[in-house]
Specification:
The protein is an alpha+beta fold. The chain has one domain. The protein is 31% helix and 19% strand. The protein contains three helices and four strands, in the order βαββαβα. The protein has helices at residues 25-35, 53-62, 74-77; strands at 3-7, 42-43, 49-51, 65-69. The strands form two sheets. A two-stranded antiparallel sheet has the order 1-4. Strand 2 and strand 3 (49-51) form a beta hairpin. The two termini are 22 Å apart. The mean pLDDT is 79.
């Protein structure tokens, strides 16, 4: 399994994401700061968030880096939408 470290500025939200989660970002950022990441942010090969948009926004607020492991096949990735 290949893992790479990405700057948060190299990751961007998926254009089709419709979640309205602004009120949760501060709470999620506090949780990450206190406990670290418990659930991953799934990012595709183009650097778009597939799953974990609120965690992404909280990580961006904290200025964290993201670890990306080798991309899963599109068929397996569909289960994360």
């Amino acid at each position: 399994m290949k893992i790479e470290l990405l700057k948060i500025t190299d990751v961007r939200p998926c254009p089709g994401n419709l979640s309205q989660n602004g009120a949760m970002i501060d709470a999620v950022a506090a949780s990450i700061r206190n406990s670290c990441f418990r659930w991953p942010i799934v990012v595709d090969a183009k650097g778009r968030v597939v799953c974990g948009h609120t965690r992404y926004k909280a990580a961006r607020k904290l200025g964290l880096r993201i670890r990306r492991r080798q991309e899963r096949s599109p068929r397996k990735r569909r289960g994360h939408h």
